[in-house]
Design a protein that fits this description.
heterodimer; A: about 325 residues; alpha/beta; Rossmann fold; seven-stranded parallel sheet; five-stranded parallel sheet; 18 strands; elongated; B: about 250 residues; nine-stranded mixed sheet; about 30% strand; binds flavin-adenine dinucleotide; binds adenosine monophosphate
């Protein structure tokens, strides 16, 4: 019988939302396959948070704890996940395609000789086989794929699968032992530089991005203020990243970040094909642009044709008003 | 210092995808192929390392005969040697990495540079797979790199910030935009690249673990609504987002 192992990502001893998304999706897949499901957490002190998985239907959580695991290490984490899959005889490994998940999954796939479907936006069971759907060419097309190797791995695009709460499950937490020597910490994170507590565009449910239509870096605060009122993250087109208004980490698009929030607001962005590639899978798209023929309006659900410098402050004001009621 | 760079050939970013007649791949007619943009950062970093520390640079690509174009592009930028692992069939990331590892295991490169991802299948896999197959550490999504002696310090991008990662050589580095500004080849470089030899070999591994069942285009969106053309549209837009789209 097959067994699903889900890696539940945590950072600073907090379970990440993407980890919960993976846990719930893995539970669903295991249910459809009629397989067992177990979860794995790795960190310095994760046994106390493992029980939080009960609200998401996870009955069994294995933890690997070590003070050296407080910060992510590609080599150590991949050794542990591969080791856990072997010890638990899991033939299906599911995790999030977050920054950590992307880094981890391919190393584990090499260790387990597993085929890996990355960044899946849909995953289902059809006559006993797992069929994964994933975007290619930056979302300009999708492929349905099947993995042929005995061990199969799937990473899930963050923010696409929604974590669903369930009642009446108790998570049994158990320590798993994996021998770790100093050589397992080949590439080690020494320091984490947090960019001014800013919410990352890939993690936000609402993203407000600005482009060259803002006219100058001094007007970018309009984007930030709107994002703040909505509790979202602020992003940018490549044009204003290249112009030095914003750091590269803000860039949305084919050579920037791919986002799929519930709401994406594009302000003064023309909608070049490379920009669309990074955001067109957003659930609802709003465009504010003074050119009614701008390509962004072809993907927008709602648009206002007008001057961003005029419209955006008013929009922020209006949201503030309705959200405080 | 021995520096190896893995590069791939991909459709240009402006490509409008049309599905081919097999229903599983894109129709390549009219598509312009380029060096994977992330691999240009890897090539640039290799050249910078060489200029600073001395050494030799080497690119390898697995692809069709036409992939020689990307080797010539790397030559034009300043890379010295190139190898094409010639495969007319499409191989998945695992098979690509196995073939690259097969060549690299005999080369003893001090540093292997890859791009973060190929912009065709967006797999983000080959660099780390390769590292694991060679038993080397890897650092992915790298936006800053310093190499001193055998010590490597890299900055990698993560959600909401950066991680500073330290390692020793040899190591596999996967480049992200922001690492550097790739140079433009000069005319002399372009001319020389045309006649420089390219080594060729056959792939040792041709087994795929992934099977593509079908390829499809995203569902077309129904035409959106222009809510208005001035400030008076603002309250209506907010109402629609709350009551119709229900996203706020
Ligand atoms: C290899 C490659 C990769 C790329 N990757 C990316 C990527 O990842 N992400 C990305 O974004 N781009 C990418 N690009 C660049 C892309 O082609 C566009 O150049 C870029 O997206 C344009 O940015 P923009 O919309 O801000 O600027 P523009 O195209 O200059 O558009 C500005 C828009 O603002 C509007 N405007 C002007 N004034 C106002 C005003 N007062 N109020 C409202 N609207 C106004 C204009 O009508 C126009 O539509 C890439 C390009 C290449 C070649
Ligand atoms: N066919 C290939 N030949 C050589 N290098 C490749 C090939 N495919 C991918 N790579 C390298 O691996 C990186 C990641 O690619 P991928 O895993 O396909 O997204 C690329 O940026 C290249 O550096």
């Amino acid at each position: 019988m097959s067994k699903v192992l889900v890696f539940v990502e945590s950072r600073d001893n907090k379970i990440k939302n993407s980890g919960l998304e993976a846990a719930c999706t893995a539970t669903k897949i295991a249910g459809d396959l009629g397989s067992d499901i177990e979860s794995l957490l790795i960190g310095s002190d994760v046994s106390k948070i493992a029980s939080e998985l009960s609200a998401y239907g996870i009955k069994k959580a294995f933890v690997v704890e070590d003070s050296r695991l407080e910060k992510y290490s590609t080599t150590a984490y991949s050794k542990i996940l591969a080791e856990a899959a072997r010890q638990r005889e899991a033939d299906i490994v599911i995790l999030s395609a977050s920054a950590m998940g992307k880094d981890l999954s391919s190393r584990v796939a090499a260790k387990l000789d597993a085929g890996l479907a990355v960044d899946c936006t849909d995953i289902k069971v059809e006559s006993g086989n797992i069929i994964a759907t994933r975007p290619v060419y930056a979302g300009k097309a999708y492929i349905d794929i099947k993995i042929k190797s005995p061990v199969k791995m799937f990473s899930l695009r963050p923010n696409v699968f929604k974590p669903l709460k369930t009642d009446g499950v108790v998570t049994v937490v158990e320590k798993l032992s994996v021998n770790l020597g100093d050589s397992d910490f080949g590439a080690q994170v020494k320091e984490v530089i947090v960019s001014d507590e800013k919410l990352d565009v890939t993690e936000a449910d609402i993203v407000v991005s600005g482009g060259r239509g803002l006219k100058g870096p001094e007007n970018y605060y309009l984007v930030e203020e709107l994002a703040k009122v909505l509790g979202g993250a602020s992003g940018a087109s490549r044009a204003i990243v290249d112009a030095g208004w914003r750091p590269h980490s803000d860039q949305v698009g084919q050579t920037g970040k791919t986002v799929s929030p519930s709401l994406y607001i594009a302000i003064g962005i023309s909608g070049a094909i490379q920009h669309l590639a990074g955001m067109s899978s957003s659930k609802c798209i709003v465009a504010i642009n003074k050119d009614k023929d701008a390509p962004i309006f072809q993907v927008a659900d709602y648009g206002i044709v007008g001057d961003a410098l005029e419209i955006v402050p008013e929009l922020t004001k209006e949201f503030k008003k309705v959200l405080s009621n | 210092m021995k520096i190896a760079v893995c590069i791939s050939q991909v459709p240009d970013t402006t490509t409008k995808v049309k599905i081919g007649s097999d229903g599983k791949s894109i129709d390549p007619s009219g598509v312009t192929f380029i060096i994977n943009p992330y691999d240009e950062f890897a090539v640039e970093e290799a050249l910078k390392l060489k200029e600073k520390q001395g050494g030799e640079t080497f690119v390898l690509t697995l692809g069709k005969d036409s992939a020689k174009e990307v080797i010539r592009k790397a030559y034009a930028m300043g890379i010295e040697k190139g190898l094409l692992i010639k495969s007319e069939t499409e191989l998945d990331s695992y098979a690509v990495a196995r073939n690259l590892a097969d060549v690299l295991k005999d080369i003893n490169a001090d540093i292997i540079l890859c791009g973060k991802q190929s912009i065709d299948f967006d797999n983000n896999q080959v660099g780390s797979l390769l590292a694991e197959m060679l038993g080397l550490p890897s650092i992915s999504v790298v936006v800053g790199l310093t190499v001193e002696g055998n010590k490597v310090r890299a900055e990698r991008e993560v959600e909401g910030g950066k991680e500073v990662v330290e390692s020793t050589l040899p190591v596999v580095i996967c480049a992200q935009r922001g690492l550097n500004e790739p140079r433009y080849p000069n005319l002399k470089g372009i001319m020389q690249a045309k006649s420089k030899p390219i080594e060729e070999k056959q792939p040792a591994y041709t087994q795929n673990k992934i099977e593509i069942l079908s390829m499809s285009l995203p569902k077309p969106k129904p035409k959106g609504k222009i809510v208005g053309t001035d400030l008076s549209a603002v309250p209506e837009l907010v109402r629609l987002l709350r009551e119709e789209a229900k996203v706020i």
